[in-house]
Amino acid sequence: MTVARSILHISASDIEPSAEFAAWADANDPLAALRSRFEIPKDASGREMAYLVGNSLGLMPKAARTRVLEELDDWARLGAEGHAHGRRPWIDYHQHFRGGLSLLTGGLPSEVVAMNTLTVNLHLLLTSFLPASRTRGVRRKVLIERGAFPSDRFAVRSFVAATGGDADDDVIEIGPRSGESCLRTEDIERAIADAGDSLALVMLGGVQYYTGQVLDMPRITRAAHAVGAHCGWDLAHAIGNVPLSLHDWGVDFACWCSYKYLNGGPGAVAGAFVHERHHANPPPRLEGWWGTDPATRFAMGPDFAAAPGADAWQLSNPPVLSLAPLLASFELFAEAGIERLAAKARVMTAFIEMSLRVRESDLRIITPSATGHRGCQLSIEVQGSTAQARARFDRLLPQGVVCDFRHPRVIRTAPAPLYCSFGDCWRLIEALHA
Ligand SMILES: Cc1ncc(COP(=O)(O)O)c(C=O)c1O
Questions:
Q1: 390 C-alpha vs ligand 1 centroid, how far in Å?
Q2: Are 233 and 354 in a shared domain?
Q3: pTM for the whole structure
Q4: pLDDT tens digits, 287-304
Q5: Atom in ligand 1 nearest the alpha carbon of residue 209
Q6: 258 CA distance to ligand 1 middle (Å)
Q7: Which structural domain range is residue 154 located in?
Q8: Potential cystine with 148: which of 55, 78, 152, 370 (Cβ 3.0-4.6 Å)?
């Protein structure tokens, strides 16, 4: 067994596809104690499940209950006074998430804001970065991905149509090459260059929801800017999963949900990033009273005086009860650090990959294996028919292993490093081959 002291610093050659390695890795994981800060679902016999669907819904930090109860108590105790005199006054409740979001996105504090839900934020940001005025000019197209999450595709196509464009003409869709599962950066760059000055916006997922591929966000952003287009990212599967540097990459906008790797709870309040270069002379945007400057908001004047930064994109006052669980999660991210979490995810995914590869198998990982091209998700394609793949998947849950299935033949598995163990990963391997 390896002599390295921490699993965060071991190399691929130190990894062994065995239960013994999993036990050793868990004993040498400096992040292992964080697991006890989460509620881990149990099976009927009381055994903890191997919960590998943090890409769908992250687990509940134990402190989330306390944080929600604190707000309920303040409501009970103070009524409307809670806006100003609660332990975390509700009036600027969203401020508590600025630091955490800034760390996780690599955005400046003024560039990030917790608000709304993901698809709503996407529409709000499309209003700004795919303005209706485009239809009067040449630059009117938007590039998305053929395999985009349906809500993204619906949002973009409906937005294009609602603002006077033609979704069939104006939405360019790019997919993997025939016989391949993942997108190639050079193909995306070529599509951008081909669209040239007809392109208004590139809008892609930072981590592809189906394959788990991490796109080369800085390179694609540069390519979009090189033809004069904006670049925006859906970070639903990226935030809390892979380190991000949105400000330095020059990304125009991004949005995400908080119920996956951010563990904010079902339907949690989402977030948005708007680069500071768009703050002073903002593009068109939809407005609401919470986007106004807090210093003058309650003067209730008729004119919109914008709040500084991304806050100006807010519409409504923050839904405190849906935000409170995120406080608990951000405390854990601050302790762990996204770089250390990503390092653990690299070892976990390498361990699963190696353990699958040493067995004769009808399973193929379609997620890229190169460092930097995946986070903690591995998408495992079952060879054969959809029914066979489904049957393979259906055997996992009774063995206490929680993954999800995506048509036609993919089992998605995501050992979220905040609470998953190498033991969980080994249980997946055993269950897949049982
Ligand atoms: C990549 C991606 N985009 C959009 C959505 C839709 O999110 P919401 O229902 O929060 O708007 C999801 C949900 O899982 C997603 O994974």
A1: 23
A2: no
A3: 0.97
A4: 999 999 999 999 999 999
A5: 1
A6: 10
A7: 69-332
A8: 152
